UniProtKB/TrEMBL annotation:
Residues 37-205 form the Nicastrin small lobe domain. The keyword Phosphoprotein does not apply. InterPro entries: Ncstrn_small (IPR041084), Nicastrin (IPR008710). This is Nicastrin.
Amino acid sequence: MIFITFLSGLICFNSFIYCVRHDVHEMMYMKFDGAPACFRRLNGTHQFGCSSPRGGSYGVVHFIRSELNLTDFLRHAVAGPYAIILTPALFRNDVIHSLIDSGKVSGIILNTALIPDIDLIPESFSPDDVCPNRYSGLDKTCPVQWNPTANRFLLNDWPLPIFLVKNLEHYNAISDCHDKFNPPLDESQLSRPLCSLHLKSHMFAAVNSETCLRRINFYGVNAAKYCDPLGGENVVLPVLPWTESGSRNVILVGARLDTLSIFDGVAPGAMSAVTGLVTLITTSSIFHRMLSTNEIQ
């Protein structure tokens, strides 16, 4: 949930006995529904992903559109904490770590509303590991980094909320508010009202999967709200019928059906599973046609 704060006041138009009242909250805040948030995940040993404090995080709006903007912010920003708007090209681990280490940032917003501006798009991006699911294998090693552009973003436990803004109207509202109240980035920000964002994406799940499940069982709370297990389905189809007796050599050919995502409900990598899935279906169809009726029986 994102709120944008406008510095306005209470307006009451009084003409004789006629008065129209506008709530201060409605005049100062604009609520953005549907802004996807980076959420927290758990495994058997760790927590990773993103979360805000329970009451949310407040930050002065500031746009970083280039490396020069980043350097200028780290040197001159004094009115923090700030909510930083980043372009996809700057949505990198090193940039985010430098912002967090500065102690001046309370939240980050990834802006994709201006895409397809080619200058804003990174050449490659993968939030997964260079060897996805390496710790689920037998030897738990990574001899071949088959996902070389990965930045391991989702394997970090980020200590602040991170949101995605892809709606152009929402982006324009934030940009207009920033341009009206916040420049320049200097000590004058300490003595004037500023446009701010309230970012709220608190995650109750913590520590690891075992601890989280133990807590919900102990307190009797709703698991779907506090510690919702991630699950899926495997679709298995044999070319030849299964038999209860006898043995034969089996070759398993598999393809993934899902994708990994940073933000809730947003899966830009979903289409990447299509190539492998179509290849698997085509291969299965060819094998089936090659088998004679006697072989199938």
